[in-house]
Specification:
Elements (H helix, E strand, L loop, with lengths): L16 E5 L3 H7 L4 H22 L3 E8 L7 H25 L1 E6 L7 H13 L6 E9 L1 H14 L9 H5 L14 E4 L18 E4 L9 H12 L9
Parallel strand pairs: 1-2, 1-5, 2-4, 3-4, 5-6
Helix pairs in contact: 1-2, 2-3, 3-4
């Protein structure tokens, strides 16, 4: 039995796609006098609970940013530790994905992460490929600019006629190709940082942003609910009146 209340007021407008930029693991640890690795450990422990809450709130597509293309600049020791945690996290998320009917999709580069981690990611994708109730995008070695560059290079390789290039054709080369809701309607970033760091640079054109003051290890389903209710009160005009 869950301790959280997943009911929403009548008339609540849910985002079809909610994306989360989990920030502040290391700051959470330092604020408590703990090694930074303890912050990562705590963040990885609560991540499945947050994703599960999104399923229970009824959100169709959830994107969780694991590791950016710039995160390789961290120490080798920290990167190696994170890669081991990602393997365990994907395995844990897979259990709930099967339970709640979620298809898991890896957004990002495949060639630079360890082969054993890529194998785990592909296994999760394969075992959930027929799920239709939800989509869980796990963004691993992902960057918005890199995604656009990879898409452009692929189009050049396939000799796409630039004179016939459309928005729809370009999007068919992005990592979110074929998804029912590729555009995040709501993006939550924790730790009080008010920037997106290039996350989903193409897809976020009309995203609503919610900047949570607390660090990611302190994020709870109740705070996700607050963000959803805040989003529901907004008026989205998409450039119109």
């Amino acid at each position: 039995m869950y301790k959280w209340d997943f009911s929403l007021p009548s008339g609540t407008k849910l985002p079809t796609h909610l994306a989360i930029i989990p920030d502040g693991n290391r700051r959470w640890a330092r604020a408590r006098g703990l090694p930074t690795f303890e912050g990562h450990k705590r963040g990885f422990e609560i991540a499945p609970e947050i994703v599960r809450a999104c399923y229970l709130f009824g959100i169709h597509t959830i994107s969780l940013w694991f590791f950016s293309t710039e995160n390789w600049n961290r120490s080798k020791e920290e990167v190696a530790y994170l890669m081991r945690l990602y393997k365990k996290l994907i395995e844990n998320l897979l259990v709930d994905a099967k339970k709640y009917g979620a298809r898991m999709i890896h957004l990002g580069r495949k060639e630079k992460i360890p082969k054993w981690l890529d194998k785990t990611a592909r296994k999760a994708e394969k075992e959930t490929e027929n799920a239709r109730k939800h989509i869980l995008n796990f963004c691993l070695d992902y960057g918005g600019h890199d995604e656009i560059l990879r898409a452009t290079k692929k189009m050049l390789e396939e000799k796409v006629d630039p004179h016939k290039l459309t928005k729809e054709i370009f999007e068919s080369y992005l990592d979110t190709k074929g998804q029912s809701y590729p555009y995040p309607e709501l993006i939550i970033r924790t730790s009080g940082e008010q920037r997106l760091s290039g996350f989903m640079s193409w897809q976020n054109a009309y995203s609503e942003f919610y900047f949570e003051h607390d660090h990611f290890p302190d994020l709870t389903p109740a705070k996700i609910k607050e963000a959803i209710l805040d989003y529901s009160r907004r008026q989205r005009r998409f450039g119109g009146n």
